[in-house]
Amino acid sequence: MTRSDELPVLNKYLAHCGLGSRRRCAEWIKAGWVCVNGTIVRDPSCRVHPDDRVTFKGRPVRIEKKYYVLLNKPRGVITTTSDEKGRRTVMDLIDWPHPERLYPVGRLDRNTSGVLLLTNDGDLVQRLLHPSNNITKVYRITLDKPLTRSHLEQIAAGVVLEDGPAYVDAVAFADPKDRRVVGLELHSGKNRIVRRIFEHLGYKVEKLDRTCFAGLTKRKLPPGHWRYLTAQEVNLLRRQAARPPKKDALN
Question: What are the catalytic residues?
Fold first, then answer.
């Protein structure tokens, strides 16, 4: 018999159903949009028994099977599940055979290519994207002109942008024969942070490619192709999402 303290709380249950993050689900519960066995429940910490009937806006919900997909996103594709302007989205690249809906983890802008994780595991998404989890991203950047050594050192030390300092974990020339090509590792989640760092120093980013996200790489995965994560990769993500934050995690 399952002990009551081992049962999932309602907002976590809804997140596992693929509705959204725990925080968002808690907001919906407090708004009165969730019923358990026909009764509106406004307490996100309410425990859910396996036999309970849970509905969201009158629609029954259940815990979905979790899927984890890695896509090598090409340039010119929108990181969203749909686009009102009819532009090509990442979901147009995936011939998805399951009823569960996938959602991108974070965003790559239209002209950025590379590693993109998609999943219906809302709880994992929330934890991966939270600044305290210090998730590492690696980029390969091609600039409109060679990067000077002084600017390379300035980026390594930290660049002050309009919304505060931008710190990187590592930066180096990716090609010793072409100083227009730079490798950058960072964990900041600020919007357009990589492009803004170089634009601040007077460079135009001609190509931006994310080669690694949370330890996942696009090795042997051509642009526009996707694959399921292995069990080892999923466990890697879960370990990273569960680890304690570093002191500089909010930089």
Answer: 109
Residue 229 lies in a domain: yes
**Of 60, 79, 102, which residue constitutes the final position of a domain?**
60
Task: Give the pTM.
Answer: 0.78
Rounded CA gap, 225 and 235, in Å?
A: 22
For position 168, which CATH number holds? 3.30.70.1560
Distances (CA, A) of 141 to 59, 173, 178, 184, 221: 46, 10, 12, 8, 19
CATH value at residue 13: 3.10.290.10
Average pLDDT, the chain: 90
* Domain enclosing residue 159, as ranges: 136-213
Model confidence at 248: pLDDT above 50: no
